[in-house]
């Protein structure tokens, strides 16, 4: 009995803290679900759930699968083929993710040692055998399909090609006939015969017009042939995609195997150690110059080993690493910008003269695009770190415990500064507004109490303008996230922007799908960042400022 | 059963270790074992990618990261700033940087990455006009080499309209710029001169050449901003695949076996890391050899695998079919015109990886011809400058170690050369090039600067 009561009490408590959490995070669409679970006005809740959860889901479903997959994909074509369907986009996501997992697996394989390594090696060899078989089958399928598609294309082209050849011949003949006619007329003209000259001119004009017409006709037919030739057979595309998939899997497995065997770190070190041991034995039986040489080799190899022991697997950067680095970069820029914007904003709000002084700078720099800032900042940062590899500040950043792996370089710093420069304006304006609109009574009370400047700042100014400051910070972070992608694209700083640009440069048949995947990744991360800021904003607002969407 | 398999595995591993132990000389004690190299998304970055993916860098005790760069300017800046340890560079880049055309920095090279591998593509529209001017071209398989003669009326027609034919190339000091200019000039079209004040190279130009990064070429052609371009692979095959343009000539037809990309590092880096430099060169030589390996019939055996590796999205990333076209000894001029071109990409044959002084001198003559070098220079200057950039001594040191390890043969390396290739006339206009007489060669061109000998 007692436990039942306590559970009910806890459940009740949880209900309100849940609802409060939902309210603070602004995820209000979840509230009716919670209320429904507690049986509170089921009808009202159902209606709300329908409105805020089911309707949006249906909208997404219709937009994605009906309008996009069913209609847009089939009507709109690019030079590299059809637009990717939503299932193609999803499979591209899988392949990007696969690449990430592969890199992690490779790194692990490189560092694996002892019994584990041998076990893993066995597993891999079995996998390779089966992958080879699958690849063989896929290649065979491609070959068969190629023959079929080729025959189809040839069949489609043949009639048009015949038509084209015929047209070419007939045009040639007609043109030759006209040439003869013109020549005859020209020869028959007696000098001074105005009418005949006009007739000749007319004939030549007509001939020229006919030539242009014929040319257009010919080009049109040719275009038709080209269209058929450039059209890709979907069946063949599919077979080829399968073949590519299997060959990539096989290539990965083979690399994985070498990392477990010939290129494995522990194995190489053992091998070198053995070598040193034999050298040492040989050294004992040598003298003179030979002994010196041997001793030098030993020391040399010892140094190689010590470096090998510290070495790390150099893989390629994959999407999740890039995402993390982008997020790090946006926060660096965001904090940098806020660090400048909040104090300046406070002074602007407190002092009209200061505000007037700042206005021209704000007015001119605020509309400048990140595309303009970045190259300028990049040159400045490069100038500040002429030799970034050996600069003490860079070395310090490289050795930081959690940030070291993100290899902070001038491109990163330039991107972060660009983010700061583009995003600080919202925070600055909101801070100034917040400070300027503090209740005059509060300030008067401070004056009566004879509070010092710092006491006023910490007790009155900052607390009462916090809600507006955070509203500004939220906008800033959103702007910063958008700016960052463009900045990375230009500076080729490792991150999501670079991923998009690399894919654009690849121009392969699945590049478009991969770029669309990035749209969703960027959108979802932007959403998460926004929600985080909303939570902060709600936490500093006392009187339950209106919920934000 | 399982146990038996296990023992054979151990046995084979042991045998492998023993045999490598016997053949391997001592590994170099490199100064820096974790390296970052840059490349541009072109198939001729293959030696770098292969050296990484096939473990040739690993075998030298190097952990290498290979990072795509957005354009040649950023790539060079990153090498100069030290963000990259080295990079896949245009042959003209180290030379131009060293003499101070564009960004000034002393860059050196001890490895030439490949020969040939570029083509000139024009839009479908220009192609059909060229066909009208020269009916021989109006065929599914027109005769090659195609000169710019049939382009002359097109250029003139556009000039009459008060416009200029717009052509794209990848960088002011790229081989593509010099090849495109060579091709145009051999038909009497003036591609424009660089002067001290005109760094765009458009003085007296009949056509307008502008810079576009290689991967952007097809998109720029498609959007109509340019009507043709000269670029490396896979961007010409991409134009064919997308049906937006027609490659009219390859640089193999403009100059047979011309040097293309080099592996460049800053002089400072090379001085600080001499052993690492040798180790890197060793790995690259092995990669080049792997790429050009042939079977008894002379068929390139590793190119399909290489094309598969290059097609990965973190390397060149274009479709495998597109990359395969040129990498496996073929070139597709039109959908109907796929030709055998075994030497379209050369990565090791003809002693091509050796850093020849004569290659450097040729680029210097072209820079002088088009005015990128604004003052007249004497013969000795050309040769001295080439020697500042090309470092065959590093190449030979690396090759010697490989020979000791039994990984290459005596015939793979030109041990005794003075660094100058034999005199050649393999140009589209038949001029003779002798690397030891740069000024004479310069003066033999019809269009371009001429200097007193």
Features:
heterodimer, A: 549 residues, mainly alpha, 4 domains, two-stranded antiparallel sheet, 18 helices, 2 strands, extended, disordered C terminus, B: 453 residues, alpha/beta, D-Maltodextrin-Binding Protein, domain 2, five-stranded mixed beta sheet, 14 strands, globular, disordered N terminus
Write the layout of secondary structure elements.
The complex is a heterodimer of chains A (549) and B (453).
Chain A: H1 2-25, H2 31-37, H3 42-75, E1 77-78, E2 81-82, H4 86-111, H5 114-188, H6 194-230, H7 234-260, H8 265-284, H9 288-310, H10 319-350, H11 352-365, H12 370-384, H13 392-399, H14 410-436, H15 440-448, H16 453-491, H17 496-506, H18 511-540
Helix pairs in contact in A: 2-3, 4-7, 4-18, 5-6, 5-7, 8-9, 10-11, 10-14, 10-16, 10-17, 12-14, 12-16, 14-16, 16-17, 16-18, 17-18
Chain B: H1 2-23, E1 34-39, H2 46-53, H3 56-59, E2 63-68, H4 72-81, E3 86-90, H5 92-99, E4 107-112, E5 115-116, E6 118-123, H6 124-133, H7 152-160, E7 165-169, H8 175-186, E8 207-211, H9 217-222, E9 228-232, H10 235-242, E10 245-250, H11 251-254, E11 261-266, H12 267-272, H13 274-291, H14 303-310, H15 320-327, E12 330-334, E13 337-340, E14 345-346, H16 357-369, H17 379-389, H18 392-404, H19 438-443
Parallel strand pairs in B: 1-2, 1-3, 7-8, 7-9
Antiparallel strand pairs in B: 3-11, 4-11, 5-14, 6-9, 6-10, 12-13
Helix pairs in contact in B: 2-13, 5-17, 13-18, 14-15, 16-17
